[in-house]
Amino acid sequence: MPEAEAFARAGIAALVYDKRTVGYSQLHRDFSLLADDARAGMETLRARSDIDPAKVGLWGFSEGGWVAPLAATEAPDTAFLITIGGPGVTPLRAQTWNLGNQLRHGHVSGSIRDAVTVPAAHLLDGAGLFPAADYDPVPVLEHVRPAVLALWGEYDTQVPPRESAQIFRQALARAGNRHVTIRFVPGAGHNGHRTKDGFDKLGGPVVDGKRLGALGPGYADVMTSWVRAVAAGQPPASSTASPPRQEFDSRAATTGAWYESIALQYAVLALFLVAFAGYPVIAGVRRITGHRGRPAVSRPARWLAATGAAAVAGTLTFMTSIFALGGKGVTPFLFGRPLPWIVLQALALAVVAATAATGLSWWRARHEVNGTTRIRLTFLLAAGTVFVPWALYWRLLLP
User: Fold this and answer.
1) How far is CA 50 from CA 36, 194, 236, 343, in A?
2) What's the CA gap between 61 and 223, in Å, rounded?
3) pLDDT greater at residue 206 or residue 289
4) pLDDT tens digit string along 174-198?
5) Segment among 128-137, 287-296, 312-321 with least mean pLDDT
6) Which of 247, 281, 354, 396 is 20 to 30 A from 67, comparing alpha carbons?
7) Are 225 and 269 part of one and the same domain?
8) What region holds the Peptidase S9 prolyl oligopeptidase catalytic domain (predicted)?
9) Are residues 271 and 363 in the same domain?
10) How confident is the model at residue 27 (pLDDT cuts 50, 70, 90)?
């Protein structure tokens, strides 16, 4: 709304509408559907007698940086395109970069940051729990023909501004678009509104009990003067301002290595489920039916099953919660590590120790262990052995 009012004060009509909820949710994304809505909005404007139908364009913020270019390619008569905080990377890559910023801002350090951006992100993607995770905006940008004004806040912490600007510039150049203006709003965050560091909001209206932040310095003026030039038939020639400093690059959730295969990850989790969770279940059944295992083997085996199940289930739950809550509430407890992560790392070390103890106990009692006990221990030791590289991949055994 603040941007729409700024356009209106400058004599530029602006249509604001609510994002749809039907066919769109936290677990389902359809950018084409949202693009259809944007094009319907353009047609609504064109139908008005007080609007010049040849001068109707699009403005998109954040996710709108994926949607508005798509709508522009599907509507050849789009007069112009403005984006603020438009991601040049995939949704998953943008989110992991955002989470990395959130954790750094909260002074969280160590291996947990890599665990979030690589194995956790990759598994959530493979499980289908991150909708439109791999949507690539580049093919669409390569077909955008109208004049483009692409803006990013100097302190954007949700979308990598330097990377995104470079991707926009290169993709739009391949489209043959010679009217691409790339600028960065000083003292502004992801939404172009004022901030000190990208994590707070300064001034502006209060919406739903939260301060929105005043428009960044020059933000509205840059947009309105640019629209006037385009409407007058004088779109500026392509130019790119110097990008702000970006502390770290975004990264893909997978390198394509064989051990990152989702099928293999599921197979490993299935082994853990059968071995760690199944061991105490079968032990309980055997106890009820009057069977007794050898204490020298059963004690470390029970410890292995318990710590293994807790480490795996705890890791998956904690990582999922970080994504679900956007990294909020994750605070350092000791040496920059959150308390849940410290507990999980301690459990991982306990699994390694219990695996060694179980193997040693079994070797000493190898002549007395047979039948179903041998099978159960084989699965359990296999799971404990596989747990070591799995824990390394999930950074549990790294500082």
Assistant:
1) 23, 33, 26, 64
2) 13
3) 206
4) 999 999 999 999 999 999 999 999 9
5) 287-296
6) 247
7) no
8) 36-195
9) yes
10) confident
| Three state DSSP letters for the chain | CHHHHHHHHCCCCCCCCCCCCCCCECCECCHHHHHHHHHHHHHHHHCCCCCCHHHCCEEEECCHHHHHHHHHHHCCCCCEEEEECCCCCCHHHHHHHHHHHHHHHCCCCCHHHHHHHHHHHHHHHHCCCCCCCCCCCHHHHCCCCCEEEEEEECCCCCCCHHHHHHHHHHHHHHCCCCCEEEEEECCECCCCEECCCCCCCCCCCEECCEECCCECCCHHHHHHHHHHHHHCCCCCCCEECCCCCCCCCCCCCCCCCHHHCHHHHHHHHHHHHHHHHHHHHHHHHHHHCCCCCCHHHHHHHHHHHHHHHHHHHHHHHHHHHHHHCCCCCCCCCECCECHHHHHHHHHHHHHHHHHHHHHHHHHHCCCCCCHHHHHHHHHHHHHHHHHHHHHHHCCCCCC
Strand partners, 58: 81
What's residue 286's pLDDT? 57
Write down which residue in 206, 240, 274 finishes a domain: 240
Name which of 397, 381, 338 is nearest 109 in CA terms: 338
- Pair (227, 298) in one structural domain: no
pLDDT per residue as tens digits for the range 137-172: 999 999 999 999 999 999 999 999 999 999 999 999
Same domain, 231 and 352: no
pLDDT bracket for residue 292 (50, 70, 90): low
Mean pLDDT, rounded, for 72-99: 97
Mean local confidence (pLDDT), 269-290: 76
β pairing state of 239-240 and 180-185: parallel
| Within a domain: 113 | no
Q: Tens of pLDDT along 96-119?
A: 999 999 999 999 999 999 999 999
Q: Are residues 67 and 207 in the same domain?
A: yes
Q: Which residues contact 154 (CB under 8 A, 6 or more apart)?
A: 161, 184, 185, 186, 187, 188, 244
Q: Is there a domain that residue 109 lies in?
A: no
Laid out side by side, the sheet with 80-84 consists of 58-61, 80-84, 147-153, 180-185, 239-240
Last residue of a domain, one of 174, 205, 240: 240
CA–CA dist 231, 114 (Å, integer): 47
